[in-house]
Amino acid sequence: MQHPSPDSDMPPLASIKVRSSSPRFPPPTTPLSTETPTANAQRKIGIAVDLSDESAFAVKWAVHNYLRPGDAVVLVHVRPTSVLYGADWGSVDLSIVDTENEESQRKLEDDFDTFTTTKLSDLAQPLVEAQIPFKIHIVKDHDMRERLCFGS
């Protein structure tokens, strides 16, 4: 578990949960804690985000124009099951990936998980600054639109 430095406004990375929802990535067998930063909110507001500047603007807009005291936010991000087939970051140069080597693919996936977590923490900064409780929900799925529309 990584913790930010004491003078940092960044949320601890442990508060970010990655939930898998495809046959390739079965859900964890251990139950998740029921006490979350959003548990006692009057309203829970979901904001679907990718890793774009537009998503960062959407979070800022919600903080300044929509959210009110007592609200909590769930940032929902659907991450493709493979970094080789995602759309958020453009194409991956396959010459840098040994597609036959599972360890190479795992390292690429781990590096992208770290990148995604860091970027989503950056997107959450307006919530931190406004002291609005939030959690980040990352779901791995092969179809981003379907996952957002049919239940994350």
Task: Please summarize the sheet with the most strands.
Answer: 4 strands, parallel
**Envelope shape:** elongated
| Second-tier CATH architecture | 3-Layer(aba) Sandwich
Domains counted in the coordinates: how many?
Answer: 1
* CA radius of gyration: 16 Å
The CATH topology is Rossmann fold
Put simply, the count of helices is: 4
Brief overview:
The chain is an alpha/beta fold.
Please provide a written account of the structure.
It comes from Abeliophyllum distichum. This is Adenine nucleotide alpha hydrolase-like superfamily protein. InterPro entries: PHOS32/34, Rossmann-like_a/b/a_fold, UspA. The protein is of the alpha/beta class. The protein has one domain: Rossmann fold, CATH 3.40.50. Strands 1-4-3-2 form a 4-stranded parallel beta sheet. The longest helix is centred in the last third of the chain and has 22 residues. The protein is elongated.
How are the elements arranged and paired?
Elements: E1 16-20, E2 43-48, H1 53-65, E3 71-79, H2 102-123, H3 125-129, E4 134-140, H4 144-149
Key traits:
single chain, Rossmann fold, elongated, alpha/beta, 4-stranded parallel β-sheet, 152 residues, 4 helices
